[in-house]
Amino acid sequence: MRLIFAGTPEFAALALGAIVAAGHEVALVLTQPDRPAGRGMALQPSAVKRVALAHGIEVFQPLSLKDPEAQAKIAALGAEIMVVAAYGLILPQAVLDLPRAGCLNIHASLLPRWRGAAPIQRALLAGDRETGVCIMQMEAGLDTGPVLLREALPIADDDSAATLHDKLAACGARLIVEAIARLPLPAEAQPAAGVTYAHKIEKSEALVDWTRSAAELDRHVRAFNPFPGAQAQFAGQTVKLWTARPVAGVGAPGTVLAVDRQAVVVACGEGALAIGELQKAGGKRLPVQQFLAGHPVQPGDRFTVKA
Question: Are 244 and 266 in contact (CB under 8 A)?
Answer without folding.
Answer: no
